[in-house]
Amino acid sequence: MTVFRKQLFFLAASLTTLATLPLLPACAPQDDGVDDLAGELATEGEPGKADGDDAFTYFEIRRDERRCVSPLCGGYWVDRVNRAKTRCADGRWAEACYVAELDTDALGLPEADLEAVQDGIYARAVIVRGDVVAATYGEFGNLGRFVATEAWRAASTAGSNDGVWVEVALNGVRCAAAPCPDKTERKLNSVRTAAIAEVDLDAAGAPPEAVDAAWAAIASLDGVIVVGDRYTVSDHGRRAKARTANQFYLRVQPTAGDPTQAE
Q1: Which residues pair with 101 in a beta bridge?
Q2: What's the CA angle centered on 129, arms 128 and 130, to 5 degrees?
Q3: Which residue ranges make up each domain of the chain?
Q4: Residues 120, 124, 125, CA angle at the centre, nearest 5°?
Q5: Labelling 161: which of 1, 78, 103, 249 has CA 20 to 30 A away?
Q6: Buried b (16+ CB within 10 A) or exposed e, 175-212
Q7: From CA 197, how far away is CA 261, in angstroms rounded?
Q8: Which pLDDT score is estimated for 29?
Q9: Could you give the C-alpha distances from 168 to 162, 189, 192, in angstroms and in order?
Q10: Does residue 115 come out as left (phi exceeding 0), alpha (psi in the -120 to 50 range) or beta?
Q11: Other beta carbons less than 10 A from residue 104's beta carbon
């Protein structure tokens, strides 16, 4: 009888302990604090050395607000995202390079959209893809110009460019169970990639129409550019990588209604 009572006591205690445990969702996010794409390694690669389609030549851009004679001042400063140094028009490597001119002809945008891109540059809300090329300006010499082939606009006025810059798009993977690494993130200006199951676009604080446009871009060839941090999702013991979007960028297209221009 005594043994039976002890068994009942331990059973009741076990049930009480289980009742006090927090209920976890089937797919729970975990912040591991380690981002496998963070940092700059010797194996990042350079443009022209990677095979096939790549994620190189992406730059942050800002207007030069110094007050001196043009074209020595009043142009633009560009620097490669995710990289400590940028190659300037004269061959030097620097944290940022001055260019006297921004060539936007290859963007294929109408005048109104080009003006919106310039406004975005002033607001530090646009990044560009392209190249720094040599360009001589008379007696001032080679000051360089930037030839832009793509422009990307920030989706959120509340977001921040903190974290690793990546391009995210679907990769065609299909899974029978979650979490499913059905997206590939390519680190910008690098050959490094990772397969992820989730990207938290809501974290950027962008308007709903921009989030919808981002999901459509992820399913397309364009993809979406995300700046954020690594976290891990798990479901019944299965784990997969994911990324929080502190900010995300959509490619500027020649359309009348631009969902990337957040209010």
Answers
A1: 145
A2: 120
A3: 25-37+159-251, 58-151
A4: 55
A5: 103
A6: eeeebbbbbbbbbbbbbbebebbbbbbebbbbbeebbe
A7: 27
A8: 60
A9: 16, 14, 13
A10: alpha
A11: 19
47-68 mean pLDDT = 86
Sign of CA dihedral 167, 192, 246, 22: positive
Give CA–CA dist 207/62, Å, rounded: 24
CA distance 117 to 133: 20
Smallest Cα–Cα separation from 82: which of 59, 105, 65?
A: 59
Q: Residue 49: how many CA atoms within 13 Å on its side-chain side?
A: 8
Q: What are the Cα distances from residue 141, in Å, to 72, 98, 144, 263? A: 10, 13, 9, 41
Q: How much is the pLDDT for 27? A: 53
How far is residue 7's CA from residue 4's CA, in Å, rounded to a whole number?
A: 5
Among 6, 143, 15, smallest CA distance to 74 is for 143
Peptide bond into 259 cis (omega under 30): no
Q: How far lies 67's CA from each of 72, 75, 105, 141, 144, in Å?
A: 9, 11, 27, 19, 19
pLDDT tens, position by position, 112-143? 999 999 999 999 999 999 999 999 999 999 99
Q: Report how far residue 119's alpha carbon sits from residue 160's, in angstroms, rounded to the nearest whole number.
A: 18
